[in-house]
TrEMBL record:
UniProt keyword annotation of NADP present: yes
Domain Enoyl reductase (ER): residue ranges: 10-333
Gene Ontology molecular-function annotations: oxidoreductase activity
InterPro entries according to UniProt: ADH-like_C, ADH-like_N, ER, GroES-like_sf, NAD(P)-bd_dom_sf, Zinc-ADH_QOR/CCCR
Entries under SUPFAM superfamilies matching the protein: GroES-like, NAD(P)-binding Rossmann-fold domains
Protein name: Zinc-binding dehydrogenase
Species of the source: Nocardioides flavescens
Keywords linked to the UniProt accession: NADP
Length: 338
């Protein structure tokens, strides 16, 4: 099989295409023939300097394809099933930038009928992160679905990003009023296509005043990508008992909080990363994301606010560079030869 590997950290040039033996699934493992692989910021950051101790690594946490073989004890999927993958490289050396991957059955999820491989490979990191961000508040809910966020208002900072887009779609599916910030009219159009009720260009005027004018009662949850830059705005628009769900550190490494204001308003700051997420929370997210796909509530493509950028497997380095360079939308690797 063909696979992308790297044996050292560094720029995308450390990635190379090689031929490897077809891996065999062990007990409770599944072999998947990949059709698409998704590329996320975590992939290039891992390759650039956060590599684990394996002598050879195949990048890629997300992907979609067809079950090719199953090991003993596997009953959840069968050969021929269409599936999507979650955290495929977490805790192991070989991820989704390859024609085949062997994964624990817990990381292999049936892909609903009618859902494309493009969509399946776009779920994983963005959608599961968005799910946790929307379910991290102290008042609940712990699960998403129609009506789960009814009567609540969600502010998604950076709604044109992959996680931001997924958060807009999942919050809208769950009944929330969704406000999002963007940096340009073009990104505003993408956020509107994703389903945001209100779009605020934070580079024009006073975004806090504009948000408060749109939702005078305040915001229940902030899905936050740049806490160092946005904390003052977040505090200005949050309700008492509001939650800031922080999933990235774009624009700064440190946040300083005015403690009296924060604790007097019972604000909650929830930091989140998938790699240490409790397994029960991960499973809940996978189930809800799959349900949203079945309902047609999670989509990709220009009309869903997620432009798709395709690269062949042999150009995985260019795909990494596109994500590192801030490509708007979803970068996908076309793994299957056809």
């Amino acid at each position: 099989m063909r696979a992308i590997v790297h044996t050292e950290t560094g720029p995308s040039s450390v990635l190379r295409l090689v031929e490897r033996e077809l891996p065999e699934p062990g007990p409770w493992e599944v072999r998947v023939q990949l059709v698409r692989a998704g590329v996320n910021p975590t992939d290039w950051k891992f390759r650039a300097g956060n590599m684990r101790g394996d002598s050879e690594v195949t990048p890629g946490q997300d992907g979609a394809g067809v079950v090719d073989a199953v090991g003993s004890g596997v009953t959840e999927v069968t050969v021929g099933d269409r599936v999507w993958l979650v955290l495929a490289q977490h805790g192991r050396a070989h991820g989704t930038a390859a024609e085949f991957t062997v994964q624990p059955v817990s990381r292999v999820v049936p892909l609903p009928d009618g859902a494309s491989y493009d969509l399946g490979a776009s779920l994983g990191v963005p959608a599961v992160t968005a799910h946790r961000a929307l379910t991290a508040s102290e008042w609940g809910p712990t699960r998403l679905g129609p009506g789960a966020l009814e009567g609540r208002t969600v502010l998604v900072q950076g709604g044109a990003g992959a996680v931001g887009n997924a958060a807009i779609q999942l919050a809208r599916w769950s009944g929330a009023t969704v406000v999002t910030t963007v940096s340009s009219p073009e990104k505003g159009e993408l956020a509107t296509a994703a389903g945001a009720h209100h779009v605020v260009n934070y580079r024009e005027g006073d975004p806090a005043e504009e948000i408060k004018a749109l939702v005078s009662e305040g915001v229940d949850i902030v899905v936050e990508v740049a806490p160092a830059q946005n904390d003052a705005l977040d505090r200005a628009v949050l309700k008492v008992h509001g939650t800031v769900s922080i999933y990235a550190n774009n624009g700064g490494e440190e946040v300083t909080l005015p403690l009296r204001e924060v604790f007097s308003r019972n604000l909650r700051y929830q930091f989140l990363i998938l790699y240490t997420l409790d397994e029960s929370l991960l499973r809940a997210a996978v189930e809800d994301v799959t349900a949203a796909v079945s309902d047609g509530a999670l989509r990709v493509g220009e009309d869903a606010g997620v432009p798709l950028h395709h690269y062949p497997l042999e150009e995985t380095a260019a795909a990494h560079d596109a994500v590192e360079g801030g490509a708007v939308g979803k970068v996908l690797i076309d793994v299957a030869r056809d």
